Sequence to fold (323 residues):
Amino acid sequence: ATLAQRGLCIAHAVRFWRSARGAAFGPMDLLKLFVAAAGEKKTNRAVASDNLYERAAPGVSGDGEVHMLIMALDYKRTSNPLTCSMDGRNMQALARACGVQDCVAMYDEQCTKENVFRAIEEIGSRCGKDDYFVFYYSGHGTNVEDEDGDEGDGEDEAFCFVDPNGQISANTLMTDDEFSEAVINATEDGVRIVVLTDCCHSGTIADLSKDEWGQREVVSIAGCLDSQTSGDMGRGGIFTHSMLLAIDQLQDAGSQEYSVGMLHNATLENDNRVFNSAQDITIQWSAATKPNKLAWPLIPQGEYKAPLTQAASATGATNAEEA
Fold:
């Protein structure tokens, strides 16, 4: 398997490494992985996952709706392409399986900074107090100088969007400050928010330590730490595939509803056991909630098989490189 980093340094010359990395796994690893709750930690550790939420997911309770925004960029017009559009299509397939009616997907040159701001505003404004706003991003991430002094490491994290010609520059970056402000302004109190980011330098890219989040229930799961890079397999990102496998496995284990904490734990288990990844999946939550107090919103309504499960079944693969 060939891995590419999903990170970009604007201030210095961009350097990418590629290396072979893969872990052997069999059908039982794909279909039966399951992880129980453990100590509550933010980085590369299982968190409390028992269902302590008061509001079930819309697909379970029948109350509220899920509104989803998917951003995926391959950067085909740059010298550092990725395969994030595969992640985007896989997430769209998951949304369909979960009966999500309001799912907007944007790819490549559609993902200008202005278009993304507009999409957040439009989709966020459609969310009512019992709804979910799910934001998913797959692409490059980077660090930039912190301008307002709210970052302990002196750096903001940023999404790498593009201009209409598919190029990245300082002007196309959306910092964590800008992102959090956009989501807060677009959604009303009572909307539950889940942020999923498969990119480098993304551990705190939702900036959930900000006081402005107030009493909003928000959880972010990122593919790595602010200081780390996320792996691109050549067929999508490790974090996204780990998460989709987790949804597959939880359904196979008979779980008809579960917390964001449970989903995170199963994702983490896949990242460690299936991919043996060097990246540290990171979960962050606002002061108003915890991972086990927020229901996971994307519950398939029928049988769901993750892309890697389907590939393994079709080819008889016994490891990640063959699947």
